[in-house]
Amino acid sequence: MNLVLVALGLMMVFEGIPLFCFPDQLKELARKLPELENATMRSIGLVLMLIGLAVVYVGKGAVNTP
After folding, report:
1. Predicted TM-score of the model (pTM)
2. What SS3 class is residue 65?
3. What is the domain range of residue 47?
4. Do 41 and 30 reside in the same domain of the chain?
5. Is the pLDDT assigned to residue 63 strictly greater than 90?
6. What is the mean pLDDT of residues 32-57?
């Protein structure tokens, strides 16, 4: 359960960074999102998920290395 809470906390930190640092640019991006095709958004989501899984895999391997 601790790992889940840590992961949730880190996700909130990383998602909060653009809101804190670039609020105007994020609002502009939100205005443009409806113009994107669903296939494009799904592709972006898939790439981000794969990158996230790779980071978790590499990070978990680094933690378990003696």
Report:
1. 0.69
2. coil
3. 36-66
4. no
5. no
6. 93
